Amino acid sequence: MYTRKNQRNLTSSEKRRLVGALLGLKRSGRYDEFVRMHGEYYVTDAEDRPRAAHMTPSFFPWHRRFLLEFERALQKIDDGVSVPYWDWTTDNSPTSSLWADDLMGGTGRRSDRQVMTGPFAYAGGQWRINARVSEGDYLTRDLGRPRDPVSLPTKSEVAEALDDPAYDAPPWDSTAATGLRNRMEGWSAGGPERWRLHNKVHRWVGGLMTGATSPDDPVFWLHHAYVDLLWTRWQQTHPASGYLPRKRLPESDPQYGRVFAADDPMPPWDVKPSALFDHTRWYHYA
């Protein structure tokens, strides 16, 4: 059992160790395997194949397992490291300590959005982008998108999502109008804006965080640790509400074979969502 802390409460030593483990995983080539996996499992509504990671009920458990696997890889380098979380409702400015040189580094320069500060700047020689979703070899960001500003989600917006007593709802995709999952994942549910909550954070960071290989930016992990924490808070608030769909959909359902019920093994680990409902066997949040 270990603890995931709010990134703002990390000590200087904890920040150094986290950065060191991230850079070590990058040097080993293992980091880029996680980036490629996320890109491979970014399957949209329009694709006629199983959809485990996005626009689907298994969004939360799939990413919980993804973070666990990543955390275990980090801990093979430094067993005292865990993934901190970024509460973007509070640390909601490009000047927040998260973006200092001793942790994530800052935004990109105006000309090409290249990050020039911090341990993941290309100029430092330790963070080369290999996924090839863009022509650049360097990490890019555009925090807050100054030319067309976007804001981070607020506490009240999060509270509204957490207040929904249902986990998910038909048609179990990006168009679901109710349910925690789509309200939190942030497609079209809850209002006219297409990008809300989780998705809006990706867009606020900008650069490589807006694509299918968004783990190219290490802030991805801190963002998803907070999303995982919010799922935990919803579970605590709605103990009688469970994962939906509970049972495999009938063959007559358009989503048959495309979404994962509670006991349907998810790729690539062949693990059921139900095996990931309780995180307390592995970690807790401070």
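The above is record 1. Record 2 follows with the same two-line structure.
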Amino acid sequence: MTYHIVEPEVAGGLGASTVLDRSCHPPVVQRLHYEFEGWLGDVLLESFPAFIVTEEARQALVQEGVTGARFDEVEVSLSDTFRETQPGTTLPRFVWLRPEGEPGRDDIATARDGRLILSQRALDVLRARGLSQALVEPFTS
């Protein structure tokens, strides 16, 4: 199977309610708050070291039977900048994508440096729902 390193759109940052364990690298997120600064429409987003996906994308990944991830709640908020630059924009529901797989074996995993690794199957599912801003390069284990 083919695998890719995927660097998703960064549409914001970690919000004030995020709880991180910074004693290791990459830091471990215990509670995630994603604050949007702007959004170009991708279904997969990042704010190091965390990833979020739309609920629709989550459902599609689960339906496809992808391995290596679990999903959790994320607190989402909009910055003043977002409200000023994208008035009237309604965000879809997002969930926290928590990669737990093994690189090169599971569909969703992270490299040691925290970058996201997706199988071709998982990448295809996300691309079909909107992933035009992500940088994608081959992953070799």
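The chain has a mean pLDDT of 96.
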